[in-house]
Amino acid sequence: MLKEAHFTPEKMLSLLGVGAGSLAPFALIPGPKERSEMLRKSLTDPKKTFSFLDYEMHTGSFNGKQLLVGNGGRYSADTAITTELLCSGGVETLIRVGSCGSLQKKIKIGDLVIATGAVRGDGASPYYVPKNYSTVSHPDVVKALMDAAKSLKIRAHTGMVFTTDALFQETPEFLQELDQQGIAAIDMVTSAFLTIAQVRGKRAAAILVVSDECLNGKIGFRHPRFLKAEQKMGDVALKAIHLLR
Q1: Ranges of the chain whose pLDDT falls below 50
Q2: In Å, how far from its chain's centre is CA 120?
Q3: 168-193: b or e for each residue (b if 16 or more CB lie within 10 Å)?
Q4: How much is the CA Rg of the chain, to the nearest whole Å?
Q5: pLDDT number for residue 225
Q6: Which of 28, 78, 99, 129 is the most exposed place for a label (fewest CB within 10 A)?
Q7: Is residue 74 within 8 Å of residue 163, measured between CB atoms?
Q8: b or e along 202-214 (b: 16 or more beta carbons within 10 Å of the residue's beta carbon)?
Q9: Distance, CA of 139 to CA of 152 (rounded, Å)
Q10: C-alpha closest to that of 182 among 102, 76, 75, 98
C-alpha cells in the first residue's frame, strides 16, 4: 500500500502561503526567468503569487482568463518540483515554453517544435511511472498550439521529444539513433513535465524553440534567429491560451 511522502506538494504550498486549488487554471511555464519576464509583460495587472529559491510565479489576466506565468525549471529534477506544485495548486492546463536541439535536418535554428509526447531519458519521471509508460501531450493543447502557430503564420513542427539529463553524453551515434527513431528534438525538461502533468490528470503540452541543430553541430543560442523566435514562441503560446476552453 502506498504511503504519503513525508513532504508533499500540498505541505510545501501551505508553507508558501498558497491554498489548495487557489492558483489560476492556465499556466505558461518557461525555464529561464528572462523568458518568464517576457511573457509576463502580456498579462494585465500581474501579481507575484508565490516564490521559492529562484522560482517566481505571477498571476494576471490575459484576454479575460486568469493566467499564471513562472520560471518552472531548466532540468527534469527542478521541473518535477514546480510541476507538482502547480498541479496541486489547481492549475488545470499547463504549457511549457522551452528550447530544444533539433534531431531532423528539416528543423532549423529558430523553428518551433510542438511536442506531441516525450521519450523519457530523464531521471525524475521513473519515480512516477514504469518504463513502458507512454508520455503524451494532451491533444486539446497540442491542437491549440498548432492552430495558434498557423493563424500567426509561424513555422512550427510537431513530433516527439527525447529528454536527457546528460548534456555531454549526447554522442553523434546516440543522436543518429534518435533521428532514426523519428524523434524531432532533444531537451532536458519535457518528459518530466508532461509525465507529472499526465499522472496528475492535467492537460499539458510543450512548445520549444530550436536553439541547436544537433545533427550538424550548429549551436545557435546567440543566433539572432533564435532570439527573434523566442518572442514568436511566446506569441504562439499566448494565442493557444486564448483558444483553449
Answers
A1: 1
A2: 14
A3: eebeeebbeebbeeebbbbbbbbbbb
A4: 17
A5: 87
A6: 129
A7: no
A8: bbbbbbbbbbbbb
A9: 20
A10: 102
Q: What does the pLDDT look like over 118-161, one tens digit per residue?
A: 999 999 999 999 999 999 999 999 999 999 999 999 999 999 99
Contact 138, 204 (CB under 8 A): yes
User: pLDDT at position 1, please?
Assistant: 43
Q: 202 has which bridge partners?
A: none
Matching residue, cell 535554428: 109
What the block records as the C-alpha cell of 24 is 489560476
pLDDT at 3: 61
Q: How many CB atoms lie within 10 A of CB 42?
A: 18
Domains observed in the chain? 23-243 (3.40.50.1580)
Cβ-Cβ contacts under 8 Å for 146 (sequence gap 6 or more):
114, 156, 158
Q: Which residues contact 60 (CB under 8 A, 6 or more apart)?
A: 40, 43, 44, 45, 46, 47, 66, 67, 69
